[in-house]
Amino acid sequence: MNDCLQLLQEACRDRAHIKGFLPAEAVTIQLETVEGCWLLSISQQGMSCEESQSSSPDLRIIGSLETISSWLTGRERLQTHLKLGSLKAVGFYRVQLWFESYVWLCRPYEQKHAVNI
Q: How far is 117 from 110, CA to CA, in rounded Å?
């Protein structure tokens, strides 16, 4: 999980097209698994994360460590997991859509192989 969160932090810091998408006021997202809880704070100043809990995050995402990690790496969509019931989201729908978009923009770029002619 820490590797996935590290990739999100690096993308937030390094990709110029994401900076305009970040909110002025910090948005807090709590990721909950059986293994632990991670609290993310995302704003124009960047993204911070820590292993802790909050009593009132803007959005809580609950599920297995494998499912959340797979989603955070951009291999799958949050909405698909919510429909299947493998993840649960608690909070405002607008924040949920924003965070899903944020994760999608932060996903690793696919390497295209050049074809020699």
A: 22
Token digits of residue 17: 């097209």
Residue 33, burial from CB neighbour count under 10 angstroms (0-12, 13-18, 19+) = middle
More confident position, 80 or 14: 80
66, 86 Cβ separation under 8 angstroms: no
Q: What is the CA radius of gyration of the chain?
A: 15
Residue-wise pLDDT tens digits, 46-85: 888 888 887 889 999 999 999 998 888 888 889 899 999 9
Q: Which residues contact 100 (CB under 8 A, 6 or more apart)?
A: 77, 78, 79
Tell me the HSE value of 70 on the side-chain side, using a 13 A CA sphere. 12
When pLDDT is cut at 50, 70 and 90, the band that residue 15 belongs to is confident
